[in-house]
Amino acid sequence: MTNELLLWLLPLPPLLAFALIVLFLNKSNKASHTVAILSVVLSWLGSMVLFLRALGIGAEALAEHPMHDSLVWLPGKTSLLRIGVYLDPLTAVTLFFVAWTIVMIFVYSVGYHNYGQPKGDHDEKGYPPHGATVEEHGHKHKVPSIEPMYARFFAFVSLFAFGMYLLVVSDNLLTLFAGWEIMGLCSFLLIGFWFKKESARAAAIKAFMTTRVGDVFMLLGIAYLYVATGSLAYTDVFNPEVLHQLAHSPAPVLGMSVAGFIGLLLFIGTVGKSAQWPLHVWLPDAMEGPTPVSAMIHAATMVSAGVYLIIRVFPLLHAAAEVPEFLSPMPIIAFIGAFTALFAATIAVAQNDIKRVLAYSTISQLGYMVAAVGIGAYVAAAFHLVTHAFFKALLFLGSGSVIHGMEHGVLHTGERIDPQNMYNMGGLRRKMPITFWTFLIGGFALAGFPVVTAGFWSKDEILGEAFAGHHMGVFWTLAVAALLTAFYTMRQITLTFLGEPRTEAAKHAHETPWTMTVPLMVLSVFAVGYGWVGVPKYFPVLGGLLPHWFQEWVGAVFHLYVKEEQAVSHSLVPLLVSILVSLGGLALGYVVYRGVTRADQPDPLARPLGPIFTLLKNKYYFDELYAFLFVRPAYWLAEVFTFRWLDRTVIDGILHAVARLSWNLGQFLRNYIDLPLINGFGDALGEGAKGFGRLFRAIQSGRVQHYMLVALAHVVAFLMLVYYYATMS
Amino acid sequence: MNSWTNHLLTLILFTPALGALVLWFLPSRPKVQRWAALVASLVPFVLTVVLWVNFDFQRAGEFQFIERYPWYDAIGAAYHVGVDGLSLVMVLLTTFLVPLAILASFSIQERVKAYMMLFLFLETGMLGVFLALDLLLFFVFWEIGLVPMFFLIFQWGSAKGERTVWPGFTLQARVYAAMKFMVYTMAGSLGLLLALQMLGLVTGSFDYLQVLERWNSISGPVLPNIPLYIPVSLVKKVAFWAFVVAFALKVPVWPFHTWLPDAHTEAPTAGSMILAGVLLKLGAYGFLRFVLPLYPAESQFYAPVLAFLAAMAALLGALAAWGQWDFKRLVAYSSINHMGFVVLAVAAAAKAAGTEHAVQALNGAVLQMFNHGLTAAGMFFLVGVLYDRAHTRNLKDFGGLFGTVPFYGGVLMFTAMASLGLPGLNSFVSEFLIVRGTWPVLPVFTAISLVGLLFTGAYILKGLKHALFGPLVEKWANLPDMTLREVLVIGPLMALMLLLGIWPLTLLDVIHRSMVALVNLLAG
Q1: Cβ contact, residue pair A77, B255, below 8 Å
Q2: Which of B169, B410, B417 sits opposite A22 (nearest CB)?
Q3: What pLDDT, in 10s, does the model give residues A628-685?
Q4: Closest residue of A to B355, CA-based?
Q5: What is the pLDDT of residues B253-310, one digit of tens each?
Q6: If phi over 0 gives left and psi between -120 and 50 gives alpha, with beta otherwise, what is residue A131?
Q7: Are B266 and B158 in contact, with CB atoms under 8 Å apart?
Q8: How far, in Å, CA of B9 to CA of B183, rounded?
Q9: B470 and A198 in contact by Cβ < 8 A?
Q10: Cβ–Cβ of A208/B461 closer than 8 Å?
């Protein structure tokens, strides 16, 4: 099969699986998951084939001649809009992690949704399964029950996979946007998967609406780009001449060039999708979805799309930043990224829900990538994108496994506790060893544990670039955020796995089935190993032993557009800082939280931090602030102002007034014109004639002798007149 | 072409009316009437497919299948019909939607014969508007469509509700809605009629093509044939506004829109489908067929005014939709939101006459007209399906139906997403094209409309949230899922939504060709 054909076909199997499950297979759980998994394995296979072929071609050659095929999609007067598929080194690395993580989610979901377990006692569609009672060895006990909407889940998640593949293989921003929005829909459907739960419903709406704010700007950005260049294909838009022209023509607002303004609009799309401040509020709530899976989607794949977008359009941003006459969007991007990284890390410190910690950590880590793009370090951003996808997928699936184990304990003991609250856990390392070790690997990667983890290499690269580029504000912000990251990661590991069980449920927690642990193990291989492809040359001892493959590979993509920076003398300061904050944070986290022994114990930080801790625990009250500033005024604007006041009172009021006026005018015309005058005149005419007749009726007696008499009188009178006039003349 | 295809348009135009007459003589049993009406409405659809196949797409900018017979020779009016790309698409929309609407009306139980006859007469009225190439003929059909719709709302509209017009004067809601619809449209027609007659007198003909040619080549300070002694420019301005108001009422454009939520909410399901699906397009069609070609200079001059009203429709329509608790009224307001984009595109095309932007905007506008026809008809139908079962449209009464009626849930989700503009489904393409065409021409109004697009998401999700999501309301626990008949109504709509989302060239090719011709005409 040719590369191009394979690229076209790549997104289709999951779409087909979605259609098959929705239309035909939804009655059979087994058929549904078989088809779904088969479809993503097919796409995975195709991705791997393409990845290996890409490796064979080599970075330089592939960057210069990407795999590319397109066809006409929209007509135009002077130019036709083409859409197609595209694979360059950046696509290849993205495809690699997307394919792996998606297959892992699918396999994991089988176990997570309790395939093979009995039906629940009182389970109904729209609520999470509550467990089933089974009889074993003569006594009854409760075990987890299968998800009542098992097939539906696989349908949604297949469509999701289609969206992600579509986005990655697109050669243009329009189909990228299509994949982007399809994932938005699936995210809505998956967050609200347990649709009868009030909290899930609210979270689903919130996610969709918040990201839509970004999407509307992004759509405008895409339309503007289409206006400005007559195309949306990367190969046309990122043509150096086109970029030059875009960067040198002024946009109508903000003192930016067209390139800069479009870049900013597209970036707002990223802010929504990758949950950057101030549109970050949806991601933590997105944890309402089926625990690890939708969470994982909101960590490893979909939110990565936002970062992928700004890396993809980096030539545009870069071109805009090169022209000093116009305001550059880059500092804005760097600021938002760095601020979000720190801001979200502080919130993560004060969360007790195991998934919420990870959610905020995701926001924070995405902030790193965005900041990296903002300072021009797109290779480092791409590198962190990939490593983060692996270790965050691992962590989320791990947390799902923990929750699953805890739920088992909760069902077994009948305890009424929140299985997601880390304070109810403790000592799980003995009960769930595979989950523990893999979670430890993921956590250490997130914390940037030196040398052995992938997270270290990618985070170090971002810090190093920030330092080398003299972006000291960004550098120190990210360094502090890294310290906090290591701290809350160790807090999480300590509370969850170390120490002794703090509840009965934790004592009875259970390791999860192989369908869940195998994906964990596979992902932990990448969480460690993927870092080795990006060891910088200047690194002591190791540097130079391994080639910096990632730098060469992704760096080749934008060689055509971005002038190579002069080799900067790499300082060891950022390296030392990143080692220090990582180890320091981990140690601190352990020291502070190892003393937690009771489930109801207050957080050790609550007293020293005081009101700040409350502020962090409540996420800086952003939800409340937005509700006050935007949501409630918008409701008022819609329901009271627009509908009740403007439409019903003013516009309809005017209409009704006109109606009433016409009605009254009609009444007036009838009562004062029609009746008295017109009718009156008509009546008067008739009545007058009648009266006249009545008056003269006397002479109309009907007797001939009377008439003769009258006639005689007239004749006499006439003759007298004639005589009179005759004598006169 | 053989002889019968020479009369294809006349056949398409009058088979529904003929069908209505046949219905008159058939037995009044509902079953007979329903099926006969369905067959009678399928004939024009099949004929339209024949028309589509025989249409010369290379010449989509010109009128084809022209038929011309003398009618009122004395005043230069004739029976003159023809199709170009624009009317072809609109005719297709009409003949496609009417059979589905009739199928949707199978649940009507009262006075079925009268209902079906009115529906078929309505179809002839609507088709006539799209086919007429004579101003007088156009006006006749424009008015004919009103009457059946008035009675459909008045007689078969929703049974409940009333509106107080002023203290002491309260009407049944459907009577109120029917009156409002009628009076409003008539008010608009008044100016239109005068302006049409003026055009006829000045140019000495009611023939569209002749009027177009002579009217635009008028030179000199005063009008020929009419001793008005008013400057031509003023006459043109007044006539322009007479046209605009008539069409803007129909689209409807803010602030002339308040008849729509009432009419659409109170009409029977199929009536709403046709109102939103086709009748609103008559207004937009009027803009494209008459306002732009006849008044290019005035359109250009007043484009910002029109754009302002359109942007207000897009924004306030979405906001008002979001503020609704009556599911049907929510969908009704969504039409104002979506049609606002069409008028915005028309304004942009008028302002940027002759450019690529104008072509893109108009492509988007016509496609949006078609797309909105599909999605709005689909949404109204689905609300009707729910109402037929639950006898309420109040969103607060629902909840958790996604588990009870999963098939309906999926279909509603699909249609709602098409209406929301999800890429991969139809509306996205047209909205994208409109934004692409309007942004460089009218950036501020486009930005306002985009805020409306944000709220499009809000109201669609509000509907889904309350109908499908949330705790199940006990009394709907045994609600039956969709029947085969209902699936047959929504199925073709969904198929087209998907097709046009994935492969918009299916329609855009012909739209594009005719819009290029229009834009070239405007550029002079």
Answers
A1: no
A2: B410
A3: 888 888 888 888 888 888 888 888 888 889 888 988 998 888 888 888 887 788 888 8
A4: A77
A5: 988 888 999 999 999 999 999 999 999 999 999 999 999 999 998 999 999 999 999 9
A6: left
A7: yes
A8: 31
A9: yes
A10: yes
